[in-house]
């Protein structure tokens, strides 16, 4: 989402079916250590926007190298995560990063070790030694969950990074005989918004602890971050510099330390030069973050800031437990893709509350989380689709309840009284459309999660759906659609609101709130009001009821009728009632023909380079962006799941590779990765809130999901090979399964799902009307 990417070359359908990522070995190999199959470099090329540095599962700290933090806003897209694999220099190591976002901010508290003359500015990456940035080689890099290392070529310093939940630990080995220096640059940020640093401070305490803060305005306004830093060697000398002598910002003022501070500095452009002299061994730098205050950062450091090796082992063990919940056996390239994808899904939503439960909320006030850990970093337009449904399976005990409690708390403290849209560090960015916290909450409740107040949750959902000033909702409630002459991207907003409304109805009905259920069930049908039956396309309507003209289903751009897409992608977004949509299209055969036309569309005469975030094209199917993610599974809704099976092979083999350039689009906080994990297991949540997963085809020989009570759910694929791409039959717990979906409860109670693969499609399996996945209008049971 949000940003311009280069598309992969689309593969012809027949050719894609023959292409193989590897030959299928005859014997399965059992993974010894899941960390051995994770490659954090996957996606660090210009499209994936992932970072290679160290983080704990869902950690507040993402300690990672920044290869270019000085670019201007419009030139920073490839550096949205701070690191781009194709850059030749490292500017420093900062403590906060997004994984796979299509936009950026963060890059907080940059640290750079130096020897010799201390340089205060990053310099020109094209002119070596013009500043403190340094050249490096990928041959010297090592990255694994919770650990990153690199040698800075210009100084010979070996840098190692690890991280706990709220701490980042640096270890720098300086060349023998060289004096050790650190530069802390509070000016540096990802995306160089003009005037981004509003205010900052540095305080040196008598015990040698360095604390500080900064307030920034960027993607999220008025974001405050505090830190505490300790060193394994005593300071020999230090200098605090303010590189900007402009009039100080008169807003937020952190209290000075007075007599408690050996030195302090406030300003807009602060740097700290720290001198340690010649050291007998590596220097460890232990850093804790807090969104509350410096005291909170110190408390976090006291609680978690052990030595480098201790923190690294603790975090690696946490990753082994998290990744070990899903054991996967597949050919080595696929297994590397899958474990890395699973790793990426476990980086966010990140922890935002301190060890004492305090956090800074969306109203900029300090709040107290009771009985849950407050989490932030919600890219909900992306992640409601597969990322959050996956977390309900692989991290079910606490993570999902924490997420829902955090969403509810955010709504209660929001100045607007609505759930988060795209939130990080507790701050709202108002990015993307819909109120997609709603399906995340409903999906959790309908799956049986009860670690939150359901009445407060439903009230928050309704408040968000009824907030008239947001995104044309006032007109949506009055007219039954969002009018394009009053609100941009109106067609997309109409259908996304309708789906969200259906999830409110589902949860309300399960809670016995029939009054709420009836109202939102009616709203869930508003998608029809923007569907032009004559042309067969979802289209934007004006307030007078007419469809906007001229109309071109291939037109794509911001501010148009659609959000990061066009009519080809958005005309399929009725996940709550695909059967009704197919009837509008003229029946199953015509729906299948339209799906085939989407994938087989000749793109040679179209140029989408002007549109941001349009990547991974297979015809008009755009895998690098989320509106297409459910589309390949829709053949099953038309009684032709064998066509889904063939399309999935085409997508997987053209859109995912175990290389830095291995993601065709932004990972979007784990959504691209979650799609791959689900697809490899053989099923996908087309309609979160239905408690169903549509069966596709597996890309693993065997996978075992460990459930909270010790039970297991096993996926097995018999006769898997490059030739056997179709599902001949499926067995659930040893019994033939004729339907093309499984229920969430089928997984949670444990058991097995067995696929028998073959080279020819079984066109009868899943064909009958009673065997198809959930659609509201056909009343297929949704358990």
Question: What does this 3D model show about the protein?
Answer:
Mean pLDDT is 92; it is low at 2-28 and 246-253. The protein is of the alpha+beta class and 783 residues long. Strand 35 (726-732) and strand 36 (735-736) form a beta hairpin. The chain folds into 2 domains: 39-320, Beta-galactosidase, Chain A, domain 5, CATH 2.70.98; 329-778, 2-Layer Sandwich (GH92 mannosidase fold). Helix 7 packs across helix 9. Strands 7-8-9-10-18-14-13-12-16 form a 9-stranded antiparallel sheet. The protein starts with 12 loop residues before the first helix and ends in a 25-residue tail after the last strand. It is 24% helix and 21% strand. The radius of gyration is 26 Å and the shape is globular.
Number of DSSP strand runs: 38
**Approximately how much helix is present in the residues?**
10-25%
Strand order of the largest sheet: 7-8-9-10-18-14-13-12-16
Separation of the first and last Cα atoms: 32 Å
The poorly predicted ranges are 2-28, 246-253
Range of strand content: 15-25%
Q: What is the gyration radius calculated from CA atoms? A: 26 Å
Structural class: alpha+beta
In CATH terms, the superfamily of the largest domain is GH92 mannosidase domain
Mean pLDDT: 92
The major beta sheet can be summarized as: 9 strands, antiparallel
H/I helix tally: 18
* CATH architecture descriptor name of the largest domain: 2-Layer Sandwich
Which CATH class of the largest domain applies here? Alpha Beta
Instruction: Label the overall shape.
Output: globular
């Amino acid at each position: 989402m949000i940003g311009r990417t280069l598309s992969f070359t689309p593969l012809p359908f027949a050719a894609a079916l023959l292409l193989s990522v590897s030959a299928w070995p005859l014997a399965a190999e059992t993974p010894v250590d899941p960390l051995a199959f994770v490659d954090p470099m996957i996606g660090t090329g210009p499209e994936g926007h992932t970072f290679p540095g160290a983080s704990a599962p869902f950690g507040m700290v993402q300690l990672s190298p920044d290869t270019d933090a000085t670019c201007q806003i419009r030139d920073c897209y490839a550096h949205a995560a701070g690191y781009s694999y194709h850059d030749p220099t490292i500017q420093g190591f900062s403590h906060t990063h997004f994984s796979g976002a299509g936009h950026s901010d963060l890059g907080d508290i940059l640290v750079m070790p130096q020897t010799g003359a201390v340089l205060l500015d990053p310099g020109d990456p094209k002119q070596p030694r013009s500043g403190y940035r340094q050249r490096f080689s990928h041959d010297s890099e090592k990255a694994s969950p919770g650990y990153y290392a690199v040698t800075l070529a210009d100084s010979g310093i070996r840098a190692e990074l690890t991280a706990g939940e709220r701490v980042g630990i640096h270890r720098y080995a300086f060349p023998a005989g060289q004096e050790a220096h650190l530069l802390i640059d509070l000016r540096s940020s990802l995306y160089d918004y003009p005037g981004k640093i509003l205010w900052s401070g540095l305080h040196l305490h008598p015990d040698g602890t360095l604390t500080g803060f900064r307030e920034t305005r960027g993607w999220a306004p008025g974001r405050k971050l505090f830190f505490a830093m300790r060193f394994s060697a005593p300071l020999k000398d230090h200098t605090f510099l303010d590189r900007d002598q402009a009039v100080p910002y008169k807003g937020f003022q952190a209290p000075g330390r007075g007599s408690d501070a050996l030195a302090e500095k406030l300003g807009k452009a602060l740097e700290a030069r720290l001198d340690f002299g010649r050291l007998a061994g590596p220097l460890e730098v232990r850093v804790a973050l807090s969104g509350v205050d410096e005291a909170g950062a110190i408390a976090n450091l006291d609680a978690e800031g052990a030595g480098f090796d201790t923190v690294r082992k603790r975090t690696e063990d946490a990753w082994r437990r998290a990744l070990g919940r899903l054991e996967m056996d597949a050919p080595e390239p696929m297994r590397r893709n899958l474990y890395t994808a699973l790793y990426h899904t476990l980086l966010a939503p990140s922890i935002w509350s301190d060890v004492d439960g305090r956090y800074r909320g969306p109203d900029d006030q300090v709040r107290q989380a009771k009985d849950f850990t407050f989490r932030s970093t919600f890219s909900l337009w992306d992640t409601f689709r597969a990322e959050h449904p996956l977390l309900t399976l692989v991290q079910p005990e606490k993570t999902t309840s924490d997420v829902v409690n955090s969403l509810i708390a955010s709504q209660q403290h929001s100045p607007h009284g609505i759930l988060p849209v795209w939130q990080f560090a507790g701050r709202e960015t108002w990015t993307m459309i819909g109120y997609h916290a709603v399906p995340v909450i409903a999906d959790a409740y309908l799956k049986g999660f009860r670690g939150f107040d359901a009445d407060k949750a439903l009230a928050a959902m309704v408040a968000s759906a009824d907030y008239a000033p947001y995104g044309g909702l006032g007109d949506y409630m009055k007219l039954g659609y969002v009018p394009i002459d009053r609100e941009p991207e109106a067609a997309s907003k109409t259908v996304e609101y309708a789906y969200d409304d259906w999830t409110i109805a589902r949860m309300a009905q399960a809670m016995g709130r029939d009054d709420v259920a009836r109202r939102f069930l009616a709203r869930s049908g508003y998608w029809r009001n923007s569907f032009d039956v004559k042309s067969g396309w979802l289209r934007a309507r004006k307030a007078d009821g007419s469809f906007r003209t001229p109309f071109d289903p291939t037109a794509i751009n911001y501010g148009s009728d659609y959000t990061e897409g066009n009519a080809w992608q958005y005309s399929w977004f009725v996940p709550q009632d695909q059967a009704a949509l197919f009837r509008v299209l003229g029946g199953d055969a015509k729906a299948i023909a339209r799906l085939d036309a989407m994938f087989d569309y000749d793109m040679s005469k179209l140029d989408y380079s002007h549109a941001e975030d349009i990547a991974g094209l297979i015809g008009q199917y755009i895998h690098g962006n989320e509106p297409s993610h459910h589309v390949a599974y829709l053949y099953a809704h038309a009684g032709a799941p064998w066509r889904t099976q063939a399309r999935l092979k085409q997508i997987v083999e053209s859109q995912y590779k175990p290389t830095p350039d291995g993601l065709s689009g932004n990972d979007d906080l784990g959504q691209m990765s979650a799609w791959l994990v689900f697809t490899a297991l053989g099923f996908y949540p087309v309609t979160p809130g239905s408690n169903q997963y549509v069966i596709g085809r597996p890309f693993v020989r065997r996978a075992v999901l460990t459930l909270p009570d010790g039970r297991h759910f096993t996926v097995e694929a018999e006769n898997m090979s490059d030739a056997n791409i179709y599902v001949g039959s499926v067995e659930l717990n040893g019994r033939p399964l004729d339907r093309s979906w499984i229920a969430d409860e089928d997984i949670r109670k444990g058991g097995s799902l067995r696929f028998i693969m073959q080279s020819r499609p079984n066109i009868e399996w899943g064909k009958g009307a009673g065997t198809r996945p959930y659609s509201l209008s056909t009343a297929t049971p949704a358990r």
